[in-house]
Design goal:
It is built from 42 helices and 20 strands. The chain has 1055 residues and is of the alpha+beta class.
Length: 1055
């Protein structure tokens, strides 16, 4: 062996060592063990501990469980992950064989640096052009001369653009990091504009070996570039060869119907346009277009034939699916770029869309975003049916479908989501707009490829339906047309004569392959973005530990081999920088113990093709609520009975309570036997009304509604209310315990809100199992989660978590619960405090981002909330440091009290006091919330009661005065919070007059609502639309119930 060859092999081995992933190290070690090679046993313990930290957060017991699932011991792990020596028997991965030409493509003279509109959307594309050119040369060299010569320059350029986009996504963070350093070194004080410095940077990297220097520092970057480039060469080769090999079949299947003779040997590939993640649009020189996909299109072809069969039986609504040409591992799909002739708001178009929705529901397709639909001729069809096919049923005993995967797709509200997605698609077509819901892990940029190039704020897109509230008549028309089409076609599909057709194709579909993403794309996007960060690109083993976090949920849920298999499949995709798409029929994921799915699928198909059409009426209501929620909230349709003025106050409160209760249940949706509501919010960015499913939290979600229903059950001994409350909170608990998707820990919008809600419901209905569930949820709250909390406040942060845990501790007397509360308290004490006029308090991260530089006064996000939480914790633990911190925080807040206003001043972002304008007195801000916080300190705190009592008097004077302002009738921002404060103050002060003031305010609130037809709920005047506890109807209902049953806990101080 020559010295040159030896040096080359050594270089490859060094590069392999630096970039070897966890699985590669294990595989190579097993390979070496088979050949009885001696190994250096160093580094294994360190890497094993790092693995444990990544997958089990350092928990040795959970890590051993994980290793058992992988069928290795800890001792073997140490052995497998030890350092490796050079060995001639090692078989290196394919990408290493191509390193030489890939590295050389980044060392070149750069003559052309002017902007090119074909590439200008791609960050740092100048650095990648040469690599893409070399890659295309490699591709052309693999093709026969006949095929290579029939690719147009435009198509070749389009293919290279796809590669450059891929490489840019991998490299952009590293290139930008170096670009910032370059700019600071070359022009630290000059004005940075134009492109001169950007050009100099690119020339520096390419002409002076700068990129290869980066590869030395970040070898993982070189590996990822090599792998992506080779994948592109192989995929492009497949696309081109398949296209020319299949031309005769394509002509027969698709193009001959135009009766235009196409000379197969003269056809060239004119354009190649990336259409979806696995799809391309191919145009020939004859302007014939075809859609190519590398996925299985058996479902697409089956739907085409089913639609043909149904269209023969129904002349009113014609389904349209593209024709398909199935091949072994890929497929060709008919493509139509003809825009719909009928506009989406025309009656015929919308009725056909409704019919299409009924078809999807019966067959088990669950589109959830507008991008799941695509225009086809004058109709709508599906973008990728295999991605949204839900009901899978395989009778092959050797190939059972993994239930864990199906749970990711079988969710309540599928019909609601599908109806909203279809409606949004129609709106976008009407406006000639497109809206991508694909979450990419690439960055967003401002001033791209210039001296002023910066990373723009990343906004992960999410689907939401914009309701055109300015034209309710048009909205009503759209809704009625969609429902008419839906119900008409659903009844057609329920005909007994169609049973055999539907069952035949249903059984075919059940055998088809389908794929899903087990987790939200946004989750994968964040992981993939982290995997491309320059700090993570130095060591292959450490880089490969990033996806290991996926297995944490499986470990928390117990030892389940099927879940671990699913985790490993996800990791394989991520290590290739791809969003996981898991095959539901993958034999590796079979679970022979799971029989439930077969039973469920059979019941679903039997129900949908039976003579019983009750499901159609239920679905019509769901669609109406999904698209036009105003229909179920319309005050004109609400009958308000006049009440006899001689009724007692208690009778009036009881009557109103019952009205609210029945209204809440009447407006509920029950998809898949789940109880939920739709939520309308005003988008302050677009001033549009946004429709979305209600969340799980206490503030405006299901947990708050469940507390209200449990309180109603307690006051009126209502079984219906109790069952509804239990159904809701059990569903919320199950979702939380399984998904573990915990973003915040506070008592209004985080994990604390569900813990607190379980405690309240347990107390209201006397169910000790709910208390056990609350304790189980509290165990999910790790020290790491508390440490990572940046919000800090009552609503979202650790201050609110303290109150939730103290509520639980008062009920379960569990020391571990109290210790977690102490950890939260210490987190707050150890967080940075900000000083104003010599006094200190905290600023949560959400307000730092809004450039608030002075800590706020008030309860929800300000000093009153911090003080109350710390004071209550001091009382529970006798730790004086919490008491002292609470007292200092009260002193901070009191400096903003303005006696002539009987209120605490608001604070502007620049630190100035808001002394004029509206004087807010709400739970969230102003005297009401501050007064309630002080009452909480008297009831549950350890501070000086006499001093705090004076501040309660100040708050009372403000609320009873005439200088205050509130937003609406709600608990958070309105008069309901005043009622709660006055009621609590009457107890603390032993003053019956304050209680009477509270009852008068409540009676006035009820009478106004009966006169106007609805409560005043902020952005939705005239409609009792918001359902939540703090901003909606159930909060007002709860306020009334607390007048009927004084022992109900006060949620505004989280009793």
């Amino acid at each position: 062996m020559s010295n040159t060859q030896t040096r080359h092999n050594m270089t490859n081995h060094d590069l392999f060592l630096k970039t070897a992933t966890l699985n590669e190290r294990i595989s190579i070690t097993k390979q070496l063990n088979k050949t009885s090679k001696q190994r250096i046993m160093t580094g294994g313990e360190r890497r094993t501990q790092a693995w444990s930290d990544a997958v089990a957060n350092g928990n040795d017991s959970l890590f051993l469980t994980y290793l058992r699932a992988k069928k290795i011991t800890r001792k073997q792990s140490v052995e497998y992950l030890s350092d490796m020596c050079p060995d001639d028997s090692l078989v290196y991965p394919k990408w290493l064989e191509n390193i030489t030409w890939i590295k050389s493509s980044f060392s070149t003279n750069l003559d052309y640096l002017e902007p090119d509109e074909n590439y200008e959307h791609i960050p740092f594309y100048h650095l990648l052009l040469n690599c893409a050119g070399h890659a295309f040369d490699k591709l052309a060299g693999q093709l026969t001369t006949n095929y290579a010569s029939r690719i147009s320059s435009k198509a070749a350029n389009q293919l290279q653009i796809e590669l450059i986009e891929k490489l840019s996504t991998i490299c952009e963070q590293t290139f930008y990091n170096k670009f910032q350093v370059f700019m600071n070194e070359t022009c630290p004080s000059e004005k940075k504009n134009g492109r001169d410095q950007y050009r100099s940077y690119c020339k520096h990297l390419l002409e002076h070996g700068g990129v290869n220097d980066i590869f030395e520092e970040r070898p993982i970057l070189l590996k990822l570039i090599a792998q992506a480039t080779l994948d592109w060469i192989n995929n492009s080769n497949d696309l081109i060869v398949r296209f020319f090999d299949d031309l005769s079949e394509l002509n027969t299947s698709f193009w001959n119907k135009n009766k235009k003779r196409i000379e197969i040997d003269l056809v060239t590939l004119a354009e190649v346009i990336k259409h979806q993640s696995d799809d391309y649009l191919l145009y020939t020189n004859e302007y014939a277009a075809i859609r190519y996909t590398s996925r299985d299109i058996t479902i697409d072809a089956t739907l085409f034939h089913l639609a043909e069969a149904l269209n023969k039986e129904n002349s009113t609504h014609k389904l349209t699916f593209p024709k398909c040409l199935l091949k072994d591992t890929y497929g060709w799909i008919e493509f139509s770029n003809t825009a719909p002739i009928s506009r989406p708001h025309s009656s015929s178009y919308l009725k056909n869309a409704g019919a299409f929705l009924a078809f999807l529901k019966v067959l088990g397709f669950t589109p959830s975003t507008q991008s799941d639909f695509i225009g086809f001729g004058n109709s709508i069809t599906l973008t990728a049916p295999s991605d949204i096919y839900t009901f899978k049923h395989n009778k092959n005993k050797d190939s059972k479908i993994n239930i864990a995967l199906l749970k990711a797709r079988l969710k309540p509200g599928n019909l609601i989501n599908a109806a909203q997605a279809l409606y949004e698609h129609c709106l976008l077509e009407e406006q000639n707009k497109t809206c991508s819901t694909t979450v990419d892990h690439s960055l967003c940029w401002d001033n791209i490829n210039t001296d002023e190039m910066v990373v723009a704020p990343v906004k992960i897109p999410h689907r939401s339906t914009q309701v055109p509230t300015k034209d309710l008549e048009m909205l009503s028309k759209i809704t009625s047309c969609l429902i008419e089409g839906y119900s008409s076609y659903a009844e057609f599909l329920s005909q007994e004569t169609l049973s055999l057709i539907l069952l035949r194709y249903h059984n075919i579909l059940q055998q088809c392959g389908a794929t899903i993403s087990p987790k939200p794309n946004g989750f994968y996007s964040l992981l993939l973005r982290k995997m491309c960060h320059p700090k993570c690109l130095s060591d292959g083993f450490e880089w490969s530990l990033i996806p290991e976090i996926i297995s944490r949920n499986s470990l928390r849920n117990g030892d389940s081999s099927i879940n671990f298999l699913l985790d490993e499949e996800e990791k394989k995709f991520l290590l290739e920088l791809k969003t996981p798409r898991i095959d539901l029929l993958d034999r590796k994921l079979n679970d022979p113990k799971q029989q439930m799915l077969d039973k469920n699928n059979t019941a679903e198909s039997d129900r949908l093709i039976s003579k019983n059409t009750e499901w159609i009426n239920k679905d019509k209501r769901l669609i109406e609520a999904a698209i036009n929620p105003f229909s179920v909230f319309n005050k004109k349709n609400r009958v308000v009975n006049d009440r006899n003025k001689t009724n007692t106050l208690r009778e009036r409160f009881c009557e109103e309570s019952k009205d609210i209760f029945h209204g809440v249940l009447d407006r509920s949706l029950r998809p898949s036997d789940k109880l939920t509501w739709q939520c309308l919010n005003l988008s302050y960015d677009t001033n549009e009304i946004i429709l979305k499913p209600i969340g799980d939290n206490l503030y405006d979600g299901l947990s708050g509604i469940a507390i209200y229903l449990s309180a109603y059950a307690r006051v009126f001994e209502s079984e219906e209310a109790q069952e509804s409350s239990l159904a809701i909170i059990s569903d919320v608990f199950n979702r939380t315990i399984v998904n573990r998707n915990i973003k915040r820990i506070g008592i209004c919008t985080g994990l604390g809100s569900i813990i607190y809600s379980l405690c309240c419901i347990s107390e209201n209905i006397g169910d000790s199992q709910l208390l056990t569930k609350a304790t189980d949820l509290s165990r999910l709250l790790t020290d790491e989660m508390i440490h990572d909390d940046l919000d800090l406040d009552i609503v979202s942060g650790c201050s609110g978590t303290i109150l939730a845990l103290l509520k639980l501790y008062r009920m379960n007397n569990d020391n571990e619960t109290l210790l977690k509360a102490v950890t939260c308290g210490n987190k707050l004490l150890n967080s940075k405090r900000y000083t104003y006029n010599g006094h200190t308090s905290w600023i949560g991260n959400n307000f730092k981002q809004s450039h608030i530089v002075v800590p706020l006064a008030g309860f929800s996000h300000g000093a009153a909330g911090y003080a109350y939480a710390l004071d209550a914790l001091s009382e529970a633990t006798s730790y004086q440091e919490f008491k002292y911190a609470a007292e200092k925080t009260v002193l901070y807040e009191n400096q903003f009290y303005i006696p002539e206003n009987n209120n605490w001043a608001s604070i502007k972002s620049n630190g100035q006091l808001q002394t004029n304008g509206k004087k807010l007195s709400q739970w969230c801000y102003g005297s009401t919330g501050i007064g309630l916080g002080r009452i909480g300190q008297i009831k549950y705190g350890a501070s000086n009661k006499r001093h705090i009592q004076m501040q309660i008097e100040n708050a009372k004077d403000g609320i009873l005065g005439s200088k205050i302002h509130w937003a609406d009738d709600s608990l958070c921002c309105g008069v309901s919070s005043h009622i709660e404060f006055l009621s609590e103050a009457s107890k603390v002060n032993d003053d019956e007059n304050l209680g009477q003031h509270a009852e008068k305010k409540l009676l006035h609130l009820i009478n106004t609502r009966r006169h106007c037809g609805a409560y005043n709920l902020g952005d939705f005047k005239g409609y009792d639309i918001p359902m939540g506890m703090f901003r909606g109807v159930t909060g007002i209902g709860y306020t009334i119930l607390r007048r009927l049953e004084k022992s109900l806990p006060n949620v505004l101080i989280f009793e």
